[in-house]
Amino acid sequence: MTVRPIRLLGDPVLRTPADPVTSFDANLRRLIDDLLETTDMDGRAGVAAPQIGVSLRVFSYSVDGDLGYVVNPRLVRTEGLQDGDEGCLSLPGLWFPTERGSEATVTGVDADGKPITVEGDGLMARCLQHETDHLDGIVYIDRLKGRTRKSALRAIREAAE
């Protein structure tokens, strides 16, 4: 297992929809192990495979002591609304208020191709939505609107200087 470096905004892998996993083999197990190791650090709620440079539909999560992963996830339900600060390892140090569902459910499979469901509220719901977005080539700043979006884009430009 290896803690992998996080790709930063500007890397094309973050803007490219990830490919579905079709081979459930030792390479997938290594990827999952690396994702879990990379996620299981202070201040990290989740990591999607594209964030470590792998364009496959897999993400890991670590919320409230619950460490896990989902292969080929699909966001199948969101309910309610939460509006709180959200950040991303691919945009270090930047946090902006982002609307998300207050509850979320993701379905997918495990490393053996067996169906799994992960659901949660609060931070877990935010994580499930955020990581699924990464697999679709969406970064959370794409969800921002109005003045918040303008502030975020300005902060990103300033951080790049």
Automatic annotation (TrEMBL):
Q: In the UniProt entry, which residues are flagged as the active site?
A: E131
What sort of enzyme, by top EC class, is this?
Answer: hydrolase
Keyword annotations for this protein, in alphabetical order, are:
Hydrolase, Iron, Metal-binding, Protein biosynthesis
**Cofactors named for this entry:** Fe(2+)
Q: Which domain of life is it from?
A: Bacteria
User: Do you know which InterPro entries this protein is assigned to?
Assistant: Peptide_deformylase (IPR023635), Peptide_deformylase_sf (IPR036821)
Question: Would the keyword Nucleus be found if you checked this record's keyword annotation?
Answer: no
**List of residues binding Fe cation:** C88, H130, H134
Recorded catalytic reaction(s): these are: N-terminal N-formyl-L-methionyl-[peptide] + H2O = N-terminal L-methionyl-[peptide] + formate
Q: What SUPFAM superfamilies does the entry give?
A: Peptide deformylase
Q: What is its EC number?
A: 3.5.1.88
Q: How is the cofactor bound?
A: Binds 1 Fe(2+) ion.
The entry assigns this protein to a family as follows: Belongs to the polypeptide deformylase family.
What is the protein's known function?
Removes the formyl group from the N-terminal Met of newly synthesized proteins. Requires at least a dipeptide for an efficient rate of reaction. N-terminal L-methionine is a prerequisite for activity but the enzyme has broad specificity at other positions.
Q: Which HAMAP family match?
A: Pep_deformylase
Quote the protein name from its UniProt record: Peptide deformylase
User: What is the native source organism of this protein?
Assistant: Fodinicola feengrottensis
Gene giving rise to this polypeptide: def_2
